[in-house]
């Protein structure tokens, strides 16, 4: 009887493939949170074997603007993966819901329509304290986590390409 062990299985690994190029699209708004996310993402790429010269950082005004630039970069096919970084912190108005939803939906749409992996490192928190925790303190660095996801997706994509899938 065949088992799951008989299936062809593909997984990415956490070593940056040779020549892989990454774009980090990050907001300037809430830069005291976003700057550590950028440093975390960059550090993850380099520590996993990536070339610092193959990392491009693009700063946009806020999370709302991220999808447009992610789409532009993905459409040009100059990057193997894109990492979106921002911090949207809930306030007392519905603005949070609009911005967080637009960023999430927009980035997801780009990844689905272009096939370019886009890692979502946009923090959506209820407080500044939660954002700080996710930018390199108690809860780790979500920029690092997003970059590791991007690395794995690039590796997986190359493995699928090699298999003709």
From TrEMBL:
Ligand binding (5-amino-6-(D-ribitylamino)uracil)? 29, 63-65, 87-89, 120
Instruction: Supply the alphabetized keyword list.
Output: Riboflavin biosynthesis, Transferase
Q: What does the record give as the active site?
A: 95 (proton donor)
Q: Name one GO molecular function term.
A: 6,7-dimethyl-8-ribityllumazine synthase activity
Binding annotation for (2S)-2-hydroxy-3-oxobutyl phosphate: 92-93, 134
Which E.C. number(s) belong to this protein? 2.5.1.78
The pathway entry for this protein reads as:
Cofactor biosynthesis; riboflavin biosynthesis; riboflavin from 2-hydroxy-3-oxobutyl phosphate and 5-amino-6-(D-ribitylamino)uracil: step 1/2
The first-level EC class reads transferase
Q: SUPFAM superfamilies in the record, alphabetically?
A: Lumazine synthase
Task: Check the record and name the InterPro entries matching this protein.
Answer: LS (IPR034964), LS/RS (IPR002180), LS/RS_sf (IPR036467)
On the tree of life, the source organism's domain of life is Bacteria
The reaction(s) annotated as catalysed by this protein in its Swiss-Prot or TrEMBL entry are:
(2S)-2-hydroxy-3-oxobutyl phosphate + 5-amino-6-(D-ribitylamino)uracil = 6,7-dimethyl-8-(1-D-ribityl)lumazine + phosphate + 2 H2O + H(+)
Q: Which family does it belong to?
A: Belongs to the DMRL synthase family.
- The protein, known as: 6,7-dimethyl-8-ribityllumazine synthase
Per the UniProt entry, what species is this protein from, by scientific name?
Answer: Pendulispora albinea
Q: Which gene encodes it?
A: ribE
